[in-house]
Amino acid sequence: MNRRVRACVFAFVLVFPLLAHAHLGSPDVFFDGLVGPYPARITIRMPMVVPGRAEISVQVDAAPPVEVSFLPLYSHTAVTNAPPPDVGRLIRGETNLYSGELWLMSSGAYSIEVKIHGAKGEGSVEIPVNSLAIRQLPLPPYLAKILLALGALLVFGGLAIVVAAARDSELAPGVSPGKAERRKAWVAGAITALVIVFVLVGGERWWNSEETVFRKGLLGAAWPDLEAKVRVDGSQRILDLTLGRKDIEPDQSVSLIPDHGKLIHFFLIREGTLDAFGHLHPVRKGGKTFEVALPPLPEGRYEMLCDLTFQKSGMSFTATNSVELPPVPTGAGQTNSLEPDPDDSWASYPASSVPAAGDTNLVYQLPAGGRVVWKAHAPLRVRQDAGLQFEVWDAAGNPAELEPYMGMMSHAAVLRKDGMVFAHLHPSGNYSMAAQGYFQAKMAHEAAGGAGSDDSMPAGMDHSKMGHMMHHASTGGTSVISLPYEFPTAGDYRIWVQFKTGGQVLTAVFDATVMGPGD
Ligand SMILES: [Cu+2]
Question: Taking burial as the number of CB atoms within 10 A of a residue's CB, which of 105, 208, 276, 481 is the most buried?
């Protein structure tokens, strides 16, 4: 950075970091693409607790019979230690829809390996998921009462057996216990009571410490903190990001796995009006600090959503916070100290240009001509296939030819308007490709004779392997974007659909209202 041109510094320190989670509030994982020779659509419903059962459904586009199987691979153990795969059941009355359940026993990154075996051979895909407890289940009062009663029965029953044994075991049948036997019974009873109290107190302590560990893993503790401030440097506004994690030492470097060739995918969304949006890629400055030159987004308070995947654990997260952007500086003609990333994109648009949710004609007019049409779909419902399909038309009224950018035909962001749900979608699904690369590298490393520990992971991830995992439609020549997704909760959402055409990345904006199951 050029210190001489640094004219003045605006510092905005932030409110306390909000809690963050991969796909904020949207834990279920979707995949759409090829599994070997078979096109398949896979849905993984994640459990809210650990250990918990993930529900997996696989829709295979192939002539039956095929066999579908699932296997959970854990980041901290060798692949060879994985249990035998579970075979998916064909759903009754369906010809190509299979389902199954997998227990995820530990907290951390897992990869769900889905294998499909059929007439055209075998194919498999790794779908990374985060196994994290999102909530602690309460103990129902009736269950507490039953357990308490059973516990009391055990304690008093055990005590009675010991007392009776000490008093009566050496007596001949029919003889009443004397003073000596009664004293012996008292002593044995007292000792047993002491042992029981000791066991109960120890048990409670053990339980409490387990609960403390669990609660630490629940929400917050392991998630990255995010802080940012903006400084004005000549004609540029530069945003400085500091990433943290409560268990990372201040001087430690944060190792991240690149996703689509970028360490961080950073979204800025103007709060309240949601009328300005940026998708930027900060570059590393120090161990935990990153910087990015801001595009000409209007001033105001912005929500920051920062997608990243940790190299050590393979866990992917979305860190969030908010930041105040100062006005665009007027230092025209000055040299830029920080080159923006060529894949950075942004849009700012009047609120009136966003088609309202429920409009019969969902058309977004692109400012430079052309339009994006959200294709007709059934009313959106919670946890049902949203069937998101968008068609892009150029200014002349012809279907636009889409080009891949950062390896994908589209990058889309979904935000519930209160900020409680955020997801980053692609035509291939919403899983983290960086985490997928992590598991592919782990498997390749172990197959080559490496140990199963994640500490011995090769530093460089093999991204050349990811190309063939991508969606069959990622080669261009289409004007339609399909995004596999289910909205996790009811409410009002905004969707930003990004695509590249004519060498330019464009953003279309839509609103959506998602109804609950009973509405
Ligand atoms: Cu993306």
Answer: 481
| Cβ partners under 8 Å of residue 104, min gap 6 | 47, 50, 51, 52, 53, 54, 72, 110, 129, 131
* pLDDT average, residue stretch 434-440: 88
Q: Are 478 and 343 in contact (CB under 8 A)?
A: no
| Max CA separation in the chain (angstroms) | 111
Supply the pLDDT for residue 358. 78
Cα-to-centroid distance, 8 and ligand 1 (Å) = 34
Residue 514 alpha carbon to ligand 1 centre in Å: 23
Ramachandran region, residue 353 (left: φ > 0; alpha: ψ -120 to 50; beta: rest): alpha
CA distances from 308 to 46, 299, 312, 496 (A): 20, 26, 12, 19
* Nearest Cα to Cα of residue 467 among 475, 479, 459: 475
Percent of the chain with pLDDT over 70: 86
The CA distances from residue 388 to 56, 92, 377, 404, 429, in Å, are: 21, 27, 8, 18, 12
Give the tens place of pLDDT for each residue, 383-425: 999 989 999 999 999 999 999 989 889 999 999 998 888 999 9
Show the tokens assigned to 472. Answer: 């069959």
Please report, as a single letter, which amino acid is at residue 407: G
Radius of gyration of the chain (CA): 29
How many A from CA of 426 to the centre of ligand 1?
Answer: 6
Determine the distance separating the centroid of ligand 1 and the alpha carbon of 344, expressed in angstroms.
11
Q: Residue 237 C-alpha to ligand 1 middle, in angstroms?
A: 24
CA 432 to ligand 1 center in whole angstroms: 9
31 Cα–ligand 1 center, Å:
14
The pLDDT tens digits of the residues spanning 73-84 come to 998 888 888 888
Q: How confident is the model at residue 62 (pLDDT cuts 50, 70, 90)?
A: confident
Task: Tell me which residue of 271, 272, 254 sits closest to 263, measured CA to CA.
Answer: 254
Model pTM score: 0.77
